[in-house]
Amino acid sequence: MRKAAVLLGLLMIVGGLTSLHALDKVRVVTSLTDLKSITEEVGGDKVDVFAIATGFQNPHFVDPKPSYILKLSKADMFVTVGLDLESGWVPPLLNSARNARINKGGPGYVDASVGVALLQVPSSVNRGEGDIHIYGNPHYWLDPMNGKIIARNICDALCRVDPDNAALYQANLKKFDDRIDAKVGGWISAMKPFAGSKIIAYHNEWVYFEKRFGLTIVDFLEPKPGIPPTPSQLAKVIGEIKRDKMKVIITSPYFTAESAELVARNSGAKLVTLATSVGAEESIKNYFDLFDHNIAKMVESLK
Ligand SMILES: [Zn+2]
Hints:
single chain
């Protein structure tokens, strides 16, 4: 009996050590699921990653919950899309978390946009009328080639906060880049027959996707980014769809269906919901799935 107890005690110690080891992982919090997916590709089993927003939430508007503050207060690294995408919710969360390691300028702070060739950068910053996208279009992760820049920024930070595993992170980064390069050609050629297709989008979040995959987005249901559709804007869009014989209106899981359905009904165009982030649908489990899904859906609806 005593031997059994000793053995049990030993097992508990070993078990304790194992879980201690698990805590040795780099604790990363990301604003979006796409950044989580890329961090997991680069970090492998050395990272424990939590994403604040779900894949079917509007990334501009997320409710800051106390549980996120707790996660951030213990994190070694924080990855943000940056620009003004999360300006309504990330700064208050970081302020409340009081964790110097992950604040701007800290070793664990990652602005994933560093090095990205931004599109639609306005000539002057204007916050009037509730404008968003004031530093340029922040939806850059929807071009898979920008995924490589994001991965590089994440790799640099992982190497800073956990230099012992730098070689592994760099090797994983190379694997990630190679896999993107291997996949992107297939995605581009799948879209090639539809090059120049004119479409309408709900929100101005597809410019990087549009540029990479040869689409032409003519107009948006929102009169301005972040401003809900107005009757006059919807009437204008219906006119444009009819004029250019457009087939497709793309929307995202977090927009209400009424306006988009009204436009579809009155114009004859098809309403297609694309995924803007990993986890938008059950089947989209990582950053590669995101493009597999969206390209398949676009090909299907433009045929
Ligand atoms: Zn936006």
